Amino acid sequence: MLDYVAEHIKAGVSTEEINRWVHEVTTKMGGIPAPLNYEGFPKSVCTSLNNEVCHGIPSEDIILKDGDIINVDVSTNLNGYYSDSSRMFCIGEVSEDKKRLVSAAKQAVEEGLKAVKPWGFLGDMAQAVNDYVKSQGYSVVREVGGHGIGLEFHEDPWVSYVTEKGTEMLMVPGLCFTIEPMINMGRPEIYTDEENGWTIYTKDGTPSAQWEIQVLVTEDGCEVISY
Ligand code: MF3
Ligand code: CO
Known about the structure:
Blueprint: H1 2-8, H2 15-28, E1 32-33, E2 46-49, E3 52-54, E4 69-78, E5 81-90, H3 96-114, H4 122-135, E6 139-140, E7 146-148, E8 155-159, E9 176-179, E10 182-184, E11 190-192, E12 200-202, E13 208-210, E14 213-218, E15 221-226
Antiparallel strand pairs: 1-4, 2-4, 3-12, 4-5, 6-10, 7-8, 9-14, 10-13, 11-12, 14-15
Helix pairs in contact: 3-4
2-amino-4-trifluoromethylsulfanyl-butyric acid binds next to strand 4.
């Protein structure tokens, strides 16, 4: 689904159009878009633009334009199992500042992934993410995190990316969870849209970026099962 989005996304496209692609293609492939009606979420995908941190709601009125960065977060139920992953897309000519933020957010996930080992701690992964993000001069959102995933969209554990090495849940073989830190160019503080109750923004108005992968811990390492 994300490959499809990557091939079609461009300036002039509305985020509602992205929602239509996700709904139609997912359904055609036999899947169910997981966001639709999830705790009342009104659409089949989250589209979060620029200073939106996550849970952006697709709309006919939001038209992508040159210089935008956008996160498209795709979650699917197929035959009873959930997948969840997201990518950033740069629309047209994007500023160097925003491009650097987008690649740092991607690298943050890679740094976290390197720390995923059976019988390690989730905090090992979190600290790897946070140390890297801080080294790039950015900040990690504290209040919104990742999650276990499998037979439910959001399962235990709740996954922070600001906790410390040697803390949090053990990564036992069989644990399946997401690495999806939200990276802000400025301060880590956020607020939620009062009107729609979903969309989260950076408090200082700076851009935010996020990539998400789904990882399965195995007996001798881990496997990325959705990206
Ligand atoms: N896909 C988001 C995640 O990564 C969750 C979105 S919940 C929704 O966990 F209802 F907004 F879809
Ligand atoms: Co997720």
